[in-house]
User: Fold this.
Amino acid sequence: MIYRIVSLAAASVLLSGCISTKLTPPPSDYQGNLPEVYKTELNTLNDVPSTPFRGGVQTFQFDAERSLLTIVFRLPNPHWYWDINKPYAEKDMFPYACKTFSQEINNDLGVRFWYLGNGGFVTDVVSKETCTKLRQSEES
Assistant:
């Protein structure tokens, strides 16, 4: 009985520590100036629970001071690895970011994708200029 109580207490402490641990995104030189109305809206993404994504989970981290949204894709096991690379992810995800966050990006939001785990990487920042270049290449 004592073993069971100690085990439950230890598990609770460990799990609560895991839940409260906040990942620190890689540094970025991006500095935007997003209007407060958008900052308030995007701050709510920090509280969105993680959602499944390609065998891992997806979370959001919005930095209001930098006007930078980091979309985090994290693998659940350190022995698993990403089977994609930075150029492929950027080609796949940049148009998605431009479409999903078009209004916010046009108002100075930066969006990047962080693939956390074995073989992980962080993409360049999607900005207003990035979306303009993508639109121009689609029109050509």
